[in-house]
């Protein structure tokens, strides 16, 4: 099986699990409808796939990674619902469908996003994981999302519109708004698979470099790709003068930047002995292949 087939297979496993979860969790609530709409809408599912691959690499089973993968996908989906709101990026298309607030209105989109945060915690806390694993996952999740992570990154991203930031500041934004969740995916997979803090830490560092490469790739695609392929409106970064590596380095420079970040990610894998890193290495290059 080549890497794209492997990723597609894990994505299917995750989406089957998500379907079962949504059927079981179904309620008559309209908030639930908006919540399920955004969770069901396509997307690459790269984060839950990463949790599965990290767990497998660390000697665990893909199935054990599903609750953590779902919780992280919920947090990611929540962050996109809010990111698309008029007060933030003001977008109308996401995952090939109208954004949550376009479909259900702003109040509902805010509330569906809020619900996703707490459901994410509930998925972990009611999972079959050992108590200490639940505690470690929730602790890491809280750290990654707050003022050292996604919220701060999103704030910096919005505040940087129209401002010429140097590369190191842009890298900082990428780290907080995107990389930290990638870091969590790797940590979670490794933590679920076994009690080996060293491997979990190293895989998290790999995830951090991979996340920066991913955000640069996303920003390149915003310029080079189209609405149909992306499932979201292209050209927004330029229109809003967003702080991206493309703005500072141009397309070719941004490709080199993403290549270097991928190189750093792969180098971390070279130093990990207790984990089967081959698939993760292939995944990093597969991701980069989207813009090369
Ligand atoms: C998309 O980036 C947005 C993010 C990666 C992060 C958004 C984060 C928040 C709204 C804060 C989340 C808060 C918690 C508690 C997790 P983008 O706008 O560059 O990408 P896009 O083109 O897909 O919109
Ligand atoms: Mg956005």
Please give a handful of descriptors for the protein shown.
single chain; 292 residues; mainly alpha; Farnesyl Diphosphate Synthase; two-stranded antiparallel ribbon; 73% helix; binds farnesyl diphosphate; binds magnesium ion
Question: Explain this structure to me?
Answer:
The structure is a single chain. With 292 residues, this protein is an all-alpha fold. The protein has a single domain (3-288), classed as Orthogonal Bundle (Farnesyl Diphosphate Synthase). The protein has 14 helices and 2 strands, in the order ααααββαααααααααα. Strands 1-2 form a two-stranded antiparallel ribbon. Strand 1 and strand 2 (97-98) form a beta hairpin. Helix 4 (66-83) packs antiparallel against helix 9 (167-193). The longest helix has 28 residues, at 197-224. The protein is globular. The protein starts with a helix and ends with a helix. The chain binds farnesyl diphosphate and magnesium ion. Farnesyl diphosphate is lined by residues 75, 79, 82-83, 89, 91, 145, 150-151, 154, 177-178, 218, 232.
In the CATH classification, which architecture applies?
Answer: Orthogonal Bundle
Q: Structural class, from secondary structure content?
A: mainly alpha
Biggest β-sheet strands, sense, barrel: 2 strands, antiparallel
Helical residues, percent:
over 70%
CATH fold-level label = Farnesyl Diphosphate Synthase
Strand order in the largest sheet = 1-2
Fraction of residues in β-strands: under 5%
